[in-house]
Amino acid sequence: MNAVDARAELRQQIFSLLTEVAGGVLENQTIEADTEFPETGMSSIEYLALIEKIETKLDVFIDLEENEDLTTVDKFCDYLLEQVPTA
């Protein structure tokens, strides 16, 4: 799988998890990969639930003190792709 495909798949996974935790917030709006989560009305509890789901599904640890800027799907993709060693 090339880097473009890996990023697209990761982005889709994050969108899926985002819909799970903030489905009510997202029902009436379109969220782009670069939409800031605070602009969507997502609560901090939903954000933390998203972090937990990402950590569980992708078997990673996200230190929020060091990564406060993870506020969009694309920023999560960038961060997570940096954490995964390339084959």
From TrEMBL:
InterPro entries: ACP-like_sf, PP-bd_ACP. Pfam families: PP-binding. PROSITE patterns: CARRIER (PS50075). It comes from the Bacteria. Residues 9-84 form the Carrier domain. SUPFAM superfamilies: ACP-like. This is Acyl carrier protein. It comes from Amycolatopsis speibonae.
